Fold this sequence. Notes:
2 domains
Amino acid sequence: xxxxxxxxxxxxxxxxxxxxxxxxxxxxxxxxxxxxxxxxxxxxxxxxxxxxxxxxxxxxxxxxxxxxxxxxxxxxxxxxxxxxxxxxxxxxxxxxxxxxxxxxxxxxxxxxxxxxxxxxxxx
Length: 123
């Protein structure tokens, strides 16, 4: 599984895609702050110092990275759940017994029964 870093669109989970998008917005805000600070847009250097900016950038990048990791986890769990459901074998309800009798004692059984009511044989 790929480790998402910026933004990933997951085909199997809209929630994972939305969380990844939110994480990407933290990266965009990080870049905005860096560019604003370098070019002194909106006189940002008057409001925030380098000592305050660096921890803020680290925190924002960490939140973005954490959200993207969470999005990857959500998509992975969804993919595992989907594949497990597709592998599941048919149950007795979907494939009823042909003769509707217990193979051991011959007692008539219902299509949804798991055990014979007479002898307890697992159907």
